[in-house]
Specification:
The protein is of the alpha+beta class and about 550 residues long. The protein has four domains: about 1-30; about 35-210 and about 220-355, no CATH class; about 365-470, no CATH class; about 475-550, Lipocalin, CATH 2.40.128. Helix content is about 40%, strand content about 25%. It has helices spanning about 5-30, 30-40, 50-65, 85-90, 100-120, 140-160, 170-185, 185-205, 230-250, 260-270, 290-310, 330-345, 350-355, 420-425; strands at about 280, 285-290, 315-320, 325-330, 365-370, 370-380, 390, 395, 400-405, 410-420, 425-435, 435-450, 455-460, 465-470, 475, 485-490, 495-500, 510, 520, 525-530, 535-540, 540-550. The strands form six sheets. Strands 11, 12, 13, 14, 19, 20, 21 and 22 form an eight-stranded antiparallel beta sheet that branches. Strands 5-6-9-10 form a four-stranded antiparallel beta sheet. The protein has a four-stranded antiparallel beta sheet with strand order 15-16-17-18, with no helix packed on it. Strand 19 (about 520) and strand 20 form a beta hairpin. Helix 3 crosses helix 6. The longest helix has 24 residues, at about 5-30. The protein is elongated. The protein starts with 5 loop residues before the first helix and ends with a strand.
């Protein structure tokens, strides 16, 4: 009998340890009232709206994005919120994800934060005089299985419609859950975030019980540059406004204290990196405004506290003809929060009104149905440069380099694979598709590092059936000279060529780069190629001139 795998034993150990730990805590505390409290607020004591929302997000990833076939690399390009001219992206972006880690992070956030928001609202109404089942509004099954999921869909659509840039992911809705929970249960929200971290740890422990790592080069952007800060802040404020409406309906006895709410708001904002306000300068350069982010967090905490905890005493009264009214303290704070939410949403409208440039694409492209794929360097970004905005010395008019994907029908123009990532990985899959179909185009780079200079390289696009070179770099001349001769590597569509020129211009010659274990002589210089490089020799002098570019 073969011994059980170590990883399986470790996974079983994780599950058993957690079950024993939870059971021991339950036995010692005997929380007999927990189930009863849940049943007072939830149908059968379960947050059905949360579970349905989680199932919807998972179904979109598995079925619509092709996660069943490619768990770690689903189709994402057609399911982003590119523009108002592309309704499919607007409808699906909030419920789609970049990959497995992105999905798992948002599912964990939903499972930890959404039950708090759903509990605050409840399946059974708490307003005095309300009777269960007396109307659709008071029907617990409608509230659990229709109203809460409908609110989730509505917030998800808002997060797509009012997001700046082609967003993807459920995080805007997750932040709305956090906003509702924060206003009602501030410290409970902090605990829920910590619980989310614990769940991620358990998930990673089950997925990879042991991990071996060592130092290696990698291609990464700053972690804060991957945060959709505007979408996260918008979702949180929408949730805060919803939570404010919920908590104000309960009267003062149901509101948290000002100190607890302020502390919860600050901790949640810091934990969720809402201070990470940044801009980009194109290419791989980003600017982080950390100090401004901290000041914004402080201002947000004050507004939330005033909106939730402030007394109902009138701040001032107004009278205009036959009309009159009273403005209260909390209403001013709520108004500022609403205006802030609108200010965050406002820039999304002009940004999402444009579509992709329909002019000629730079370089030679491959066509996959309505998609055009090419590679180019230092070209204007056709999706960003349409709207030229200057702010804080930065601008949206940037150039880009890498694998470009365009669909005029969908309003898509994007650098799917940056130049730096392709240079690092060597071969990258670009997944295209739509509802009911998927196809992959591979971008592949090959090149030669030239002694004392840069790299001469080519980029090939391959759909699996055929492939061709669509881009060649500029020729690269080696730094050292040999016998008064300069050697230049010239990439072409078919091969690499060696060009030898004399410094006085008296003679020159060219030849194709020799094959493996072959040689060629040009104007007295002998070039020998082995597995990984090319050497050049003349009268007993020998240099390693070229080295094959390698990738991670």
């Amino acid at each position: 009998m073969d011994p059980l795998p170590v990883d399986l034993l470790l996974r079983v150990g994780v599950v058993v340890a957690l079950l024993v730990s939870v059971a021991a805590a339950a036995f010692v505390d005997r929380p007999a009232t927990l189930g009863a409290r849940l049943r007072k607020r939830f149908v059968l004591g379960l947050p059905w709206g949360t579970l349905l929302s989680t199932g919807l997000v998972l179904a979109v990833y598995l079925l619509l994005q092709g996660g069943f076939d490619n768990w770690y690399s689903p189709v994402t390009i057609p399911f982003r919120a590119w523009s108002y001219a592309y309704p499919l992206g607007m409808l699906t972006a909030a419920f789609s994800h970049n990959g497995a880690s992105h999905l798992i992070g948002n599912l964990i956030g939903t499972l930890t934060l959404a039950p708090l928001a759903e509990y605050a609202w409840g399946h059974f109404p708490r307003r005095r005089g309300s009777q269960t089942f007396s109307s659709l509004r008071t029907n617990p099954y409608v509230r659990a299985f229709v109203a809460f999921p409908a609110a989730v869909l509505a917030v998800g659509l808002l997060s797509s419609v009012f997001a700046v840039g082609p967003i993807i992911g459920f995080s805007g809705v997750v932040f709305a859950f956090a906003g509702v929970a924060l206003v009602n249960y501030p410290l409970g929200t902090v605990v829920a975030l910590a619980g989310g971290g614990a769940l991620r740890l358990v998930y990673n422990a089950l997925r990879a019980p042991t991990l071996t790592a060592s130092g290696r080069p990698t291609y990464v952007s700053p972690w804060w540059a991957d945060i959709a800060i505007q979408g996260h802040a918008f979702g949180l404020l929408v949730g805060v406004l919803i939570g404010l409406w919920v908590v104000r309906k309960r009267g003062r006895r149901g509101r948290p204290s000002a100190k607890r709410l302020w502390l919860g708001a600050v901790l949640v904002a810091v934990e969720q990196s809402l201070w990470a306000v940044y801009w980009y300068r194109g290419g791989d350069t980003y600017v982080l405004y950390r100090a401004a982010g901290v000041m914004l967090i402080a201002a947000l905490a004050v507004l939330v506290v005033i909106g939730v905890v402030a007394r109902d005493d009138p701040l001032f009264e107004w009278e205009l003809g036959a009309d009159s009214g009273v403005v209260r303290n909390w209403q001013v704070a709520a108004g500022v929060l609403l205006l802030t939410t609108a200010a965050l949403a406002g820039p999304a409208v002009p940004t999402n009104l444009f579509t992709a440039d329909s002019g000629e694409l730079p370089g030679e492209e491959r066509t996959v149905r309505d998609y055009e794929v090419t590679y180019a360097e230092n070209v204007p970004n056709g999706q960003i440069s349409v709207v030229d905005v200057d702010a804080f010395g930065e601008t949206t008019a940037v150039n880009t380099s890498g694998v470009i994907v365009r669909s005029s029908e969908r309003g898509i123009w994007t650098t799917s694979v940056p130049k730096g990532r392709l240079a690092f990985d060597g071969r990258v899959a670009v997944r295209l598709g739509g509802v009911g179909w998927r196809e992959t185009v591979y971008a592949q780079r090959d090149g030669w590092q030239v002694l004392g200079s840069g790299t001469a390289y080519r980029v090939r696009l391959d759909s699996g059936e055929s492939g061709r070179v669509v881009y060649t770099s500029d020729p690269v001349t080696a730094g050292p000279t040999l016998a008064g001769r300069n050697v230049t590597v010239v990439p072409t569509r078919d091969t690499y060529r060696l060009r030898v020129t004399r410094q006085d211009g008296s003679a020159n010659g060219t030849a194709a780069l020799p094959g493996k274990n072959a040689s060629v002589t040009i104007d007295g210089l002998r070039f020998d190629r082995n597995t990984s490089g090319v050497t050049v020799s003349y009268n007993g002098t020998r240099l390693r001139l070229l080295t094959r570019e390698t990738y991670e």
